[in-house]
Design a protein that fits this description.
With 605 residues, this protein is α/β, with parallel strands linked by helices. The protein has an eight-stranded antiparallel β-sheet with strand order 3-2-4-1-10-9-11-14, covered by helices on one side. It has a six-stranded antiparallel β-sheet with strand order 5-6-7-8-12-13. The chain has a five-stranded parallel β-sheet with strand order 18-17-19-20-21, sandwiched between helices. Bound molecules: 2-deoxy-2-amino glucitol-6-phosphate.
Length: 605
């Protein structure tokens, strides 16, 4: 998804912008550009389709002096990914340069009106209208111009702009698209994401919807929608800067997969009282979730799959009716939400447009809201009535791994907490197993050589099927998504009992079938389905618990997870599936951390 970086201060802007954009590469993009306001009053622009390396090459050794500038990585929504559509954009006379994240929904009518007034457009983007609208405010102070322009815009935007007429000012505006100000000493930054500026400052002001900001080298001032100055204080970001970097691994994804034992530790830290048989979640006390009529989990992609695990556990352990819905479906389906319900929005980024819209829809219908998110200060984090953070640390690879396992563990803890609030006994032994999860995950991850070999064998398959029942089915869905998104192999997950209702027709000799079989009550049923596909020549790889020696007889290969309570099995059984996807993508020579067509944070509908 698009990224923004801006700088104003005593240093040369260009290196800061390019380095900041590189830190946003993980978000996924298809073009990049910068605009620097030189001392002579000219705005120098360079923009290119492709990677930031292409932009660097395009700039080459040319001198681009200037101490104020804006930069952008674009993920195309309106108009193809080419040089013209890359940001920054200008009006007719090149007086203003702007970058924008989000979508201007009324851009067609604005463009028609501007064209009728004589403006000439150079790109196909929705963004360019903002530059032309600014031009119509020529003569006014830059901040006031931007404030006036935002009144014409419908949709979502994070905008940063500079002007030849005000060389000491950078302005910005936010509506439903993240934007933060980095506060330095004698210099200020603007960025869509904190990692872009973390090397320069840890003090950030998070803009709210409707805010406009004016940055000079010495100060950043924020104004709310009605134009009054805001007194919002900077937050200090405690992240280790290296946590956002690769730490010696070839890809962020493998680093993040291998971090999961630590993520389990962090997620459970301070939340377990094993002796007392309690899970402590003070963050949700005020919501009184145990007396909720019904829970609605809304999420997209991997987070939706975590939500499916959450539903099964909350219903199974706490016996509260729970529905899990895809965010983009929920928001338009006239959902049956009533006062007394609670909506749980699950999202790594906290910025997924459909999940945010679903949360708002639920709230509008009277539900109280809980965000389960990995990013503090994100839109969901700020909008929900309560927040249960997932504590996975920054996740950079587009394909989610550690955020997923921290989501499922967080939802498991929530299920246990709700059970205890409803007077049900929580097994101490289960809580002890949560404490033991990191050690078990370590054992499992040490088998990665075996999984790498398997990935080599399946890397050229045409179709791969994942089957399972109950919690195993929820994990199968995540396994197939992971494989598809980074290896580009076609994969499909099925509730194992559904095979004979159609998909069995696709099973032919040699087709890999990954069968998850960790749930005692369902294992015989799943074994029958494994037998059915094997009889048709499928190559069955079973994933089961260590003690289940019988699996050997029903599969061509078996990957064993350390013995674990069934409720916690998803937290372990997904690990070999993440590794399988990772090594298959590596074997196929793919760009693992930045898969084609995908973005880390989907902030548009
Ligand atoms: C995960 O591997 C995917 N890239 C994607 O499905 C992701 O989970 C989805 O876009 C939701 O993102 P969120 O958790 O940030 O809301």
């Amino acid at each position: 998804m698009c990224g923004i970086v801006g700088y104003i201060g005593p240093q040369e802007a260009l290196p800061i912008l390019l380095e900041g954009l590189e830190r946003l590469e993980y978000r996924g993009y298809d073009s990049a550009g910068v605009a620097v306001l030189g001392g002579d009053g000219d705005i120098l622009v360079s923009k290119r389709a492709g990677r930031i390396a292409d932009l660097r090459e395009h700039i080459g050794a040319s001198e681009v002096p200037g101490r104020i500038g804006i930069g952008h990585t674009r993920w195309a929504t309106h108009g193809r990914p080419n040089d013209e559509n890359a940001h920054p954009h200008f009006g007719c006379d090149g007086r203003y340069a702007i970058v924008h994240n989000g979508i201007i929904e009324n851009y067609t009518e604005l463009r028609q009106a501007l064209t009728a007034r004589g403006h000439v457009f150079r790109s196909e983007t929705d963004t360019e209208v903002v530059a032309h609208l600014l031009e119509e405010e020529k003569g006014r102070p830059l901040l006031e111009s931007l404030q006036r322009v935002t009144r014409h815009l419908r949709g979502s935007y994070a905008i940063a702009a500079i002007s030849r007429d005000e060389p000491g000012t950078l302005v910005a505006a936010r509506e439903q698209s993240p934007l933060v100000i980095g506060v330095g000493r004698g210099e200020q930054f603007i960025a869509s994401d904190i990692p872009a500026i973390l090397r320069h400052t840890r003090d950030v002001v998070i803009l709210e919807d409707g805010d406009c900001a004016q940055l000079t080298a010495d100060a950043a001032q924020v104004f709310t929608r009605d134009g009054s100055p805001s007194t919002r204080q900077p937050l200090h970001v405690a992240w280790d800067v290296h946590a956002a970097e690769k730490g010696g691994y070839e890809h962020f994804m493998i680093k993040e997969i291998l971090e999961q034992p630590q993520v389990f530790r962090e997620t459970a830290r301070g939340r377990l009282d094993v002796e007392g048989g309690r899970v402590i979640l003070p963050e949700i006390d005020e919501l009184d979730m145990a007396s909720a009529r019904k829970l609605h989990i809304v999420a997209c992609g991997t987070s939706y799959h975590a939500g499916l695990v959450g539903k099964a556990l909350i219903e199974g352990i706490a016996r509260i009716e729970t529905r899990t819905e895809i965010g983009s479906e929920f928001r338009y389906q006239d959902p049956l939400v009533e006062e007394g319900d609670i909506l749980i929005a699950v999202s790594q980024s906290g910025e997924t447009a459909d999940t945010i819209a679903a949360l708002r829809e639920g709230r509008r219908r009277g539900a109280r809201t809980l965000a389960v998110t990995n990013v503090r200060g994100s839109s969901l984090d700020r909008e929900a009535d309560a927040v249960l953070p997932t504590l996975a640390g920054p996740e950079i690879a587009v394909a989610s791994s550690k955020a997923y396992t921290s989501q499922i563990l967080t939802l498991t803890l929530l299920a246990l907490h709700l059970a205890q609030k409803r007077g049900r006994t929580v097994r101490r032994e289960l809580l002890q197993q949560v404490v033991d999860l990191p050690a078990k995950a370590d054992v499992l991850l040490s088998l990665r050589g075996e999984i790498e070999a398997l990935a080599g064998r399946i890397a050229q398959a045409k179709d791969i099927f994942y089957i399972g029942r109950g919690l195993d089915y929820a994990v199968a869905l995540e396994g197939q998504l992971k494989l598809k998104e980074i290896s580009y192999l076609h994969a499909e997950a099925l509730a194992a009992g559904e095979l004979k209702h159609g998909t069995l027709a696709l099973i032919e000799p040699g087709v890999p079938v990954i069968a998850l079989c960790t749930q005692t009550r369902l294992r015989e049923k799943t074994i029958s389905n494994m037998t059915e596909v094997r009889a048709r020549g499928a190559h069955v790889v079973a994933i089961g618990q260590a003690h289940d020696e019988e699996l050997e007889r029903h599969a061509d290969e078996v990957l064993r997870i350390p013995d674990v309570a069934e409720e916690l099995a998803p937290a372990l059984s997904v690990l070999p599936l993440q590794l399988l996807a990772y090594y298959a993508a590596v074997a196929r020579g793919n760009d693992v951390d930045k898969p084609r067509n995908l973005a880390k944070s989907v902030t548009v509908e």
